[in-house]
Design a protein that fits this description.
Shape: elongated
Radius of gyration: 21 Å
Distance between the termini: 26 Å
Order of helices and strands: HHHHHHHHHHHH
Largest sheet: none
Helix content: over 70%
Structural class: mainly alpha
């Protein structure tokens, strides 16, 4: 129930060609910026990550505005995500978000931030960000279960049961088999909270 599998965003990010500057024709793209940036994008697609970083660094001094600067950081985010360099990824996401990114990219980045904090050991921050992500966008069963499991660990039983139930419902919505762990979290939460009516109600669903 880790976020590395729950979000599944690393590969998605790698496939993104961050060329938001191209959407602003009024800003002339300098050759000194455009050529190394394009080389960085191509290298990223080829998974030549160090080349992508080097070419992005070469383009950076010639970025004309915040949009182009953000595009550079988006290259770095994709590289660091794929290389699992999570502290660097978090830093580049924060920079890119401050400079401005498209709404769909914001969604990706919020997910990646949760993953980054989870993988660097800041579980509380990861849970907070995952909850914010789920509230804003919804998500996958394992994302709900990630929150549920950690709420169970911190003895926040009501939220643990609620998020595990959402994991169950999302699995049903997606037509997936329900992970038995989700039911176990619900049962543990109700049991430890001494909420016996809900405990037995859930138990009847699991073993009718």
């Amino acid at each position: 129930l880790g976020l590395l599998t729950a979000f599944g965003l690393v590969a998605v990010t790698a496939g993104i060609a961050p060329a938001a500057f191209a959407q602003q024709p009024q800003v002339k793209v300098k050759k000194e910026f455009g050529e190394p940036f394009e080389a960085a994008r191509v290298a990223l697609q080829a998974q030549q990550f160090q080349v992508a970083l080097d070419k992005a660094a070469a383009a950076e001094p010639f970025a004309a505005d915040n949009t182009q600067k953000s595009a550079i950081e988006q290259i770095r985010v994709a590289v660091y995500a794929n290389m699992k360099k999570y502290p660097e990824m978090i830093k580049s996401i924060d920079t890119a978000m401050a400079l401005g990114v498209a709404p769909e990219m914001q969604k990706n980045y919020k997910g990646l931030l949760a993953l980054g904090y989870s993988e660097t050991g800041d579980t509380a921050k990861a849970v907070q960000l995952t909850k914010e992500y789920l509230d804003a966008y919804g998500g996958a069963p394992d994302q709900y279960a990630f929150v549920a499991r950690n709420k169970l660990n911190t003895k926040e039983y009501s939220e643990a049961a609620a998020y595990a139930q959402k994991a169950i419902e999302q699995s049903e919505k997606e037509g997936k088999s329900i992970n038995a762990t989700y039911y176990n979290i619900v049962l543990s939460a109700h049991g430890q909270a001494n909420n016996l009516s809900e405990y037995y109600k859930t138990l009847e669903k699991v073993a009718p």
